Amino acid sequence: MEGVTVVDHPLVQHKLTLIRDKERSTKSFRELLNEIGMLLCYEVTRDLPLTDVKIETPVAPMTGKEIAGKKLVFAPILRAGLSFVEGMITLVPSARIAHIGLYRDPVTFVAVEYFFKAPVNLEERLVIVIDPMLATANTAVAAIDRIKEAGAKEIRFVCLLAAPEGIERLRAHHPDVPIWTAAVDERLDDHAYIVPGLGDAGDRAYGTK
Ligand code: URA
Question: Is the CB of 162 under 6 A from ligand 1?
Fold first, then answer.
């Protein structure tokens, strides 16, 4: 699939199986979301450009490497994106955060915005949009529309699970936005849930059902 990276690292796949299990506690679900977020962050930042920097170790001067350019922006889609982004922030603590509040209408599945706050100079930064579930892609498309409106030019999308329908729609609307996911599942059901999926990621992360 062009533009889609499935992260098949054994640790990711193992944790994914754990998090799918319906018997998993809220606490454990959140911890796993955080841990998988960290592992996916490692993959999505794999090709970031580096620049030389001179330092002195206790033994000798040397030229090391550091990440070049402006700080990254993580853009979690509320609310499930919040637990998912935590692990990413652990790895990149200086990243800026854009919060995108969108919910999908339970009847029409259309994305409705209720909050948006992003750092300045988005056009100079790599923005990583984060949502655990890429289902219909209505929310992802709306979030990326919004982040582009705010100036972002270079965008990546990270999710835990994707449905083929969601990938197709997101790629059709935003072909310039590559996707990283831990798995591509079978399909969507009549309620637009991913099958086999893991249920409602927000409810499971926050114990609201
Ligand atoms: N959102 C979820 O939380 N789960 C799904 O399966 C689809 C969308």
Answer: no
Instruction: Indicate the SS3 state at residue 202.
Output: helix
Query: Residues with Cβ < 8 Å from 7, sequence gap 6 or more?
Result: 39, 40, 43, 180, 181, 182
Task: List all residues 6 or more positions away from 55 whose beta carbon is below 8 Å from its beta carbon.
Answer: 61, 62, 63, 64
Half-sphere exposure in the Cβ direction for 68 (13 Å, CA): 8
Pocket lining: 206 vs ligand 1, CB cutoff 6 Å: no
SS3 82: helix
Task: Tell me the C-alpha distance between 182 and 39, whole Å.
Answer: 10
Ligand 1, pocket-test mutation among 83, 184, 193, 195, most atoms within 8 A of CB: 193
Domain formed by 4-206, architecture: 3-Layer(aba) Sandwich (3.40)
When pLDDT is averaged across residues 8-30 and rounded to a whole number, the result is: 97
The closest-lying atom of ligand 1 relative to the alpha carbon of residue 80 is 3
Domain extent listing, the chain: 4-206
pLDDT by residue (tens digit) across 114-154? 999 999 999 999 999 999 999 999 999 999 999 999 999 99
| 208 catalytic residue (yes or no) | no
Indicate whether 49 pLDDT > 80: yes
Instruction: Give the position, in ligand 1's atom list, of the atom nearest the Cα of 202.
Output: 3
